[in-house]
Design a protein that fits this description.
The complex is a heterotetramer of chains A (338), B (396), C (380) and D (267). Chain A is α/β, with parallel strands linked by helices and 338 residues long. Chain A has 13 helices and 14 strands. A five-stranded mixed beta sheet of chain A has the order 10-9-11-8-12, sandwiched between helices. A three-stranded parallel beta sheet of chain A has the order 4-1-5. The longest helix of chain A is centred in the last third of the chain and has 20 residues, at 234-253. The radius of gyration of chain A is 21 Å and the shape is globular. The relative contact order of chain B is 0.12. Chain C folds into two domains: 96-168, no CATH class; 169-374, Orthogonal Bundle (MetI-like fold), CATH 1.10.3720.10. Chain C has 17 helices and one strand. In chain C, helix 12 packs across helix 14. Chain D has 267 residues and is of the alpha/beta class. In chain D, 41% of the residues lie in helices and 24% in strands. Chain D is built from ten helices and ten strands. Chain D has helices at 9-19, 66-73, 95-104, 120-132, 136-149, 165-177, 195-210, 222-228, 246-251, 256-266, and strands spanning 26-37, 40-51, 55-59, 81-86, 89-90, 105-108, 183-187, 214-218, 231-236, 239-244. In chain D, strand 4 and strand 5 (89-90) form a beta hairpin. In chain D, helix 4 runs parallel beside helix 6 (165-177) and helix 6 packs parallel to helix 7. The chains are: A alpha/beta (338), B alpha+beta (396), C mainly alpha (380), D alpha/beta (267). At the B-C interface, helix 2, helix 4, helix 5, helix 11 and helix 12 of B face helix 2, helix 3, helix 9, helix 10 and helix 11 of C.
Chain lengths: 338, 396, 380, 267
């Protein structure tokens, strides 16, 4: 008798807790009323809980942009913090709708894991952080160093490639959890901490005394970080992709959170198309025609997101660099809305 | 009348449904069917999920290049090695830390178990407090403590603590001098081996002598004389020499000597201290399980305390101690998998962590890992059954 | 008789009974105690002195660190960064909400508090052997309570705001995993134990295989399996909540251990009980549920509680698969820059250890208490 | 007084005389002995002189201290006041003296306390080999002799768990005899046994008594007391209440408590 009750209770719990994600991801999202977004448990500037335990960061803003595009509500998003080990399983199982978790776009991932990358939110590359007191000038002086790395990442493979290609020895100290990697470096277990240089900058701000640490100039890999979705649902892929393009286009066209209402009256046909004043580009994706307007109204354009979370004025302090628009000498380039 | 006779001759047929055999078969059939259905359900789901993710299955990944490095290996390994070599590295690291941990935990555990039964109040109390604290705190937490909290308080490489004999302790681990014996040293080793053999011969002879003449021979002293003095004399006469390679600061770290990384030391420490508390309880229970009457009987026969323990109490206590002790050993081996959290590259960390992530072969990797632990457990239980059969007390 | 002569000599009758005499100081009193328990032999004296020195060496610095020089009240880590400061309790205090509730929204935390209070109200009478209504109480705790807690915490009905499980954390999650593990593993363990005792070869071998497989592998592989393989096992498009996956892993794992404990109880029961039940004409399920199991389970209450202790300690492993249990919240807070100091991590770990210890130690005391009760019950 | 008729004894006789410290005829002498368990005064003012070859049966209600009394004789229990002198050696906390006394005093327990991990023969030879330093062959010869005497030589290679209670108790007696004790203590040797087994054990004990062994027996077997005892002692509340020759003791008990006790166990 007791058994039966427990079984029923469990079954009920399971039915409640297990959301169904049909191939029609958008329909499912509209039905449940929010986007489920997989993020890192804590990389400042990208996604991390802030002082009030709200998620914030540029990758979080991207997820909020999806919420804004679909529901006109940037808060219609829920976040699932994931370890690097679980992230792909979480996406392919439908536990999350979109993975926006400092994930490098690589061929094997794009082709072998049943996922599609929607684009590049942030062009990154792997770098090294060392203690100033060690007096290291270059990554090529790192022979014999103990290096702290997060396990199961491209970082781990890149480091192996780099040291082997340059005939150097090193001690890879590998942890499953990002927090533990940083902690071990900070505690002095390693001479070097290596990961994407953006994350290095972010983590540096979290160290006890950031000025005691320097990030070396060498970048040893290409790490285009971008959101990804499950394969096999092109509508959802389009939404994910064009949400990213919309914020890039907005920056290019000079549409900001502050002036977006003004811009509704702009004469520029490109702006009119972006904001849904002219034509209905949302319809093909199952969205309203002011989908992009809603994004910009709620969160601003790419530049605003960047400056808010990782830009020079933040603790992380990353210059735009290659992430500047193509018009400003960078490589961020969005196809036109037309 | 005829009816009754007929009934007496052939018992009334039980109805089909009430035949316990048929019922049994029916139940088993239902269970088997349900299980098969469940297995098929899972297999189909898995196949569908894999197909949707465009994943293939199979073990051929074992023979592709791993591409990552491991810093603590017992066999040659580099990023160009294959995944099966990475697997082997992890497995050997698991076995290494388990083997050493078992030895330390056994000694400490027996010490604790005996100390808890000590008539000395303060000794018994210290042992009790130790056991009650250690076994009521999760092992993972203890590992974090030994690794992160203690590591933080250790000095950096350049401020290393230096101890006698070239032992160095810093945040990068514990460095010991590596002995480099010269050629003549082989004589000393031979002398040592000969001494051991000689001691075994003396021991056997002493036993025979005790049995035939009733005279006892100081076997323990003989051991000391043979095993210490024989090699020592050989050492002096042959002029054998052992040089030591001391760890020296070079670049970032100390180079040379024997290097024990903090991950290894913390894991070993955590596992041994934790398991020792449980072994202590096992030993205590084993000793208490020997009826006090046995001690009294031995005393009344005039046995001295040493003989009483050796001949009467310990042989009986060991029967009670060995089976749970073996499962503690198995637990220690299984618990070594927590190393994944503190970065010691053992099986789970290398295989279930890195390899799974890099290859995405969840099913294969989990299957193989479980198979390894299952094998270890089966081997242990085979040993335990053998031991139990060997020492079982004969009862009526 | 040759002893006639001696008869008079040996014949003796006591005229008056001697009163009881007070024990000499060599038997009772502090001096006797010190002599017999500290200095009974030269070896013991040496041990006593060595132990005393050890305590003198450990205790004062420990006291200074934990209490003497500890920082109890502070706004931020500055007070803890002072040279020679002890444990930074102020840090623990400032993060206490996080340690207890995780990311649970502050304005909804009253729901967690109600769940705690209700649990306390149900569990105290359950553990008190003299109180009546054990069956009702047990049903309420093992069946009703988990359902109420689930509704209360996850919300989404009865006008409660929905709080997704990723926001659950801290001690709340630790206790939830412990509770669910206990509630599911016990019945599952009983079924498995009965199956293992079964005479039907198929059922028996299925149960044996299940039990031995789970007992052979470390929990962490089970949790990894639950986190990477379980999503593959469910139909396409169905996703299983992360916390639920960990719960499934923990429950199956502890059920296997529970099964072995229950089996011990079943085997310890004299054959006669089974025969008597059969002789009364009870069928299998009736004799199990009215005769055998009540006795067998009562015998193994200490063993069951010990499994609960192991289970409760094991909940900390979910932090490895990224669930914010108590240990993980402490681990995460240890890198809180506001409170950065040398002692931050140590303080955090000591706090977490103390919480776990209090739970586990009181469970183990309870188990000893029950063992004692059961044993005295057996003696005439 | 019956002399030793056992051949195997001859080898041991030498050692035995060596260990004999005093030449008096007193085997055990207890003077003004008191004992406490914590605050509880278990034995009060015990005075007892056991002559060589004497057989004393100690009776009394449970908790009267009779077992404790005989356990003081081989120092399984320590007394706090008074003197216990066994075979001329006074028992103190001196370990050497305790060793000497224990070798001379055999003891048979209520629950046999055979070593379950050893065979019957090994049970009997272990102490002679390790304590007396007897060669194994000799020890086995002695052991077989006594096993024959207690009528179970055929069980020599079995384990205690395979024997009945009565057989185990007989082995326990044989095990003590193998040490060639001068004094035998019996602590309720038959109270854990079935009636027919009691008989076989008592027969062995009677045989021992006939051979002149000095015996201190705690028992409720009053038939045995009548048959073999030189003296019967009645204890209560940790003191000796009455002692007398068995015939007198049973037919004419003097003390009220003795009368009451006898009326309860004899009817």
């Amino acid at each position: 008798m007791k058994n039966t009750i427990v079984t029923i209770a469990l079954g009920g719990a399971m039915a409640l807790m297990a959301g169904t994600a049909s191939a029609q991801t958008l329909e499912a999202i509209q039905a449940k009323g929010y986007v489920q977004c997989g993020v890192t448990a804590g990389v400042p500037g990208f996604s991390a809980p802030d002082a009030d335990n709200n998620w914030s960061g540029i990758e979080v803003d991207y997820c909020r942009a999806l919420g804004a595009a679909i529901f006109d509500d940037a808060d219609a998003v829920r976040f699932t913090p994931l370890t690097s080990t679980e992230r792909f399983a979480a996406l392919s199982s439908g536990e999350i709708d979109v993975l926006s978790r400092t994930t490098t776009w690589t061929m094997s991932r794009d082709t072998g894991l049943g996922i599609n990358f929607a684009g590049t939110l942030f062009y990154d590359g792997q770098g090294f952080m060392v203690r100033k007191s060690d007096g290291i000038a270059s990554a090529f002086d790192l022979s014999g160093a103990a290096v702290c790395i997060e396990s199961g990442t491209t970082t781990e493979l890149n480091a192996a490639d780099f040291f082997s290609a340059n005939g150097m020895d090193y001690n890879p100290i590998v942890f499953i959890d990002q927090d533990e990697v940083v902690k071990a470096y900070e505690d002095g277990r390693c001479d070097v901490y290596t990961t994407d240089s953006s994350a290095l900058a972010a983590e540096r701000t979290r160290l006890g005394n950031p000025d005691d640490h320097v990030i070396l100039a060498e970048i040893i890999s290409k790490e285009p970080l971008g959101p990804s979705v499950r394969q096999g649902d092109d509508v959802w892929l389009n939404i994910a992709r064009w949400t990213l393009f919309a914020i890039l286009n907005a920056e290019e066209l000079g549409v900001t959170q502050a002036n977006v209402d003004e811009m509704l009256g702009s004469n520029d046909p490109a702006i009119k198309r972006l904001l849904g004043v002219e034509g209905d580009f949302g319809a093909a994706m199952g969205l309203s025609k002011d989908w992009a307007y809603n994004i910009i109204k709620a969160l601003g354009n790419y530049s605003e997101m960047y400056e808010r979370h990782v830009g020079p004025d933040t603790a992380i302090g990353l210059a735009r660099g290659v992430n500047a628009l193509w018009t400003d000498g960078g490589i961020q380039y969005a196809p036109p809305i037309r | 009348m005829a009816d009754i006779e007929a009934r007496q001759k052939s018992p009334p047929k039980t109805s089909f449904w009430n035949d316990p055999k048929i019922r049994g078969l029916f139940y088993q059939f239902v269970v088997m069917g349900a299980l098969a259905a469940f297995a098929i359900f899972i297999a189909l789901n898995t196949a569908a999920n894999l197909a949707r993710q465009g994943k293939t299955t199979g073990f051929e990944f074992f023979f592709s290049t791993a591409g990552f490095d491991i810093f603590f290996t017992l066999i040659p390994y580099s990023r160009a090695s294959f995944y099966w070599e990475a697997f082997l590295v992890g497995l050997l690291n698991t076995l290494l830390v388990s083997a050493i941990g078992i030895v330390i935990a056994t000694f400490l555990g027996f010490f604790l178990g005996i100390a808890r039964l000590s008539p000395n109040w303060i000794v018994a109390r210290i042992a009790t407090v130790y056991v009650e604290i250690i076994r009521n705190i999760p092992l993972l937490l203890q590992l974090f403590f030994w690794y992160f909290a203690v590591l933080k308080t250790l000095p950096g490489v350049r401020q290393s603590l230096e101890f006698a004999g070239g032992t160095i302790l810093n945040q990068r681990g514990l460095y010991l001098a590596r002995p480099l014996p010269d050629d003549n040293f082989t004589f000393v080793i031979w002398a040592f081996l000969i001494a051991i053999v000689a001691w075994l011969v003396v021991k056997a002879w002493a036993k025979r002598r005790l049995e035939s003449t009733g005279k006892r021979f100081p076997v323990a002293w003989t051991f000391l004389v043979l095993v210490v003095f024989l090699p020592a004399i050989t050492w002096l006469t042959t002029g054998a020499n052992v040089a030591f390679e001391y760890p020296e600061l070079s670049g970032f770290n100390f180079v040379g000597g024997i290097e024990l990384p903090p991950e290894f030391v913390a894991l070993l420490l955590g596992l041994s201290l934790y398991t020792a508390a449980f072994i202590g309880e096992t030993v205590r229970a084993g000793i208490l399980a020997v009826d006090h009457g046995q001690t009294e009987a031995a005393q009344s026969l005039g046995f001295r305390d040493g003989d009483r323990l050796r001949l009467v109490v310990i042989p009986q206590a060991m029967r009670v101690i060995v089976p749970p002790l073996t499962s503690q050993y198995l637990n220690l081996t299984k618990n070594s998998s927590l190393a994944a959290a503190i970065g010691y590259p053992e099986l789970v960390s290398v295989f279930l962590g890195t390899t799974l992530n890099q290859t995405g072969r969840a099913i294969e990797v989990v299957f193989i890992t479980m198979l390894v632990y299952l094998t270890l457990s089966l081997v242990t239980s085979v040993f335990m059954n053998w031991y139990n059969a060997r020492v079982a007390l004969v009862e009526r | 008789m040759s002893t006639t002569n001696a008869t008079k000599e040996i014949s003796f009758v006591r005229e008056e009974m001697l009163p009881e005499m007070p024990a000499p100081s060599s038997v009772v009193g502090p001096v006797a105690w010190i002599r017999s328990s500290l200095f009974s032999s030269p070896g013991n004296s040496i041990l006593t002195i060595a132990s005393a020195l050890l305590l003198l060496w450990i205790m004062p610095p420990l006291y200074n660190f934990l209490i003497g020089n500890a920082v109890f009240i502070a706004e931020d880590g500055a007070a803890c960064r002072v040279e020679g400061a002890g444990a930074c309790w102020a840090f623990i205090w400032s993060r206490m909400d996080f340690f207890i509730y995780g990311f649970f929204p502050a304005e909804e935390q009253w729901r967690v508090n109600i769940a705690f209070a209700l649990g306390l109200v149900l569990i105290v009478p359950l553990m008190w052997p003299e109180l009546p209504f054990k069956v009702v109480n047990a049903l309420a705790f093992f069946v009703g309570y988990p359902i109420i807690v689930f509704i209360l915490l996850s919300g989404g009905m009865f006008g409660l705001t929905e709080v997704p499980t990723v926001n659950w954390g801290g001690l709340t999650v630790t206790l939830i995993i412990g509770l669910v593990g206990i509630v599911t593993s016990l019945p599952l363990g009983i079924v498995l134990a009965l199956g293992r005792q079964s005479k039907m070869p198929v059922i028996k071998s299925v149960c044996v295989m299940f039990i031995e497989l789970w007992r052979a592998v470390p929990l962490i592989t089970v949790l990894f399996m639950a986190s990477v393989m379980l999503p593959l096992f469910v139909p396409v498009g169905v996703s299983v909540d992360k916390l639920l996956r960990a719960l499934v892993g923990v429950s199956l794992f502890s059920a296997a251990y529970m099964a072995e404990v229950v089996r011990g109880g079943l085997q310890a029961l004299p054959r006669g009980q089974y025969e008597a039940a059969g002789a009364l004409g009870l069928n299998y399920w009736k004799s199990m549920s009215f005769i055998i199991l009540p006795q067998a389970l009562k015998h193994v209450i200490p063993g069951i509680v010990n499994s609960f202790i192991a289970l409760f300690k094991d909940t900390s492993l979910v932090s490895i698969v990224g669930i914010f249990d108590l240990l993980n919240t402490v681990q995460a807070s240890n890198s809180d820059l506001n409170w950065a100091s040398e002692q931050q991590a140590v303080t955090g770990y000591i706090f977490a250890a103390a919480v776990f210890w209090v739970f586990c130690f009181s469970m183990s005391r309870y188990s000893i208490y029950m063992e004692h009760r059961l044993h005295t019950g057996h003696k005439r | 007084m019956a002399t030793d008729t056992i051949t195997a004894d001859d080898d041991l006789a030498v050692e035995r005389t060596k260990l004999t410290v005093s030449e008096t005829d007193v085997a055990v002498e207890i003077v003004d002995m008191h004992k406490w368990f914590g605050d509880f005064n278990v034995l009060r003012d015990i005075n007892l002189k056991v002559m060589r070859g004497e057989r004393i049966v100690i009776a009394g209600p449970s908790g009267s201290g009779k077992s404790t009394l005989i356990r003081c004789v081989n120092r399984l229990e320590e007394h706090q006041r008074g003197k216990v002198i066994v075979d001329g050696v006074e028992l103190t906390s001196d370990l050497k003296r305790i060793d000497v006394v224990r070798r001379e005093v055999g003891m048979v327990f209520q629950h046999f306390n055979l070593f379950p991990h050893l065979t019957i023969l090994e049970n009997c030879t272990l102490a002679p080999i390790w304590v007396r330093g007897l060669p194994k062959v000799e020890a086995e010869k002695v052991a077989m002799h006594y096993l024959e005497r207690v009528k179970i030589p055929e069980q020599a290679n079995k384990y205690p768990g395979q024997l009945s209670g009565g057989q185990q108790q007989r082995v326990a007696i044989a095990r003590s005899l193998c040490m060639n004790p001068k004094i035998m203590l019996f602590d309720e040797p038959t109270s854990a046994l079935d009636p027919e087994m009691i008989k076989e054990v008592l027969e062995v004990m009677v045989g021992l008594a006939e051979d002149g062994m000095t015996m201190l027996v705690v028992t409720h077997e009053m038939g045995f007391a009548r048959q073999v005892a030189n003296r019967v002692m009645f204890m209560d509340e940790g003191q000796i209440i009455e002692q007398n020759e068995p015939e007198e003791f049973f037919s004419n008990p003097k003390h009220e408590r003795t009368k009451h006790f006898l009326s309860q166990i004899l009817h």
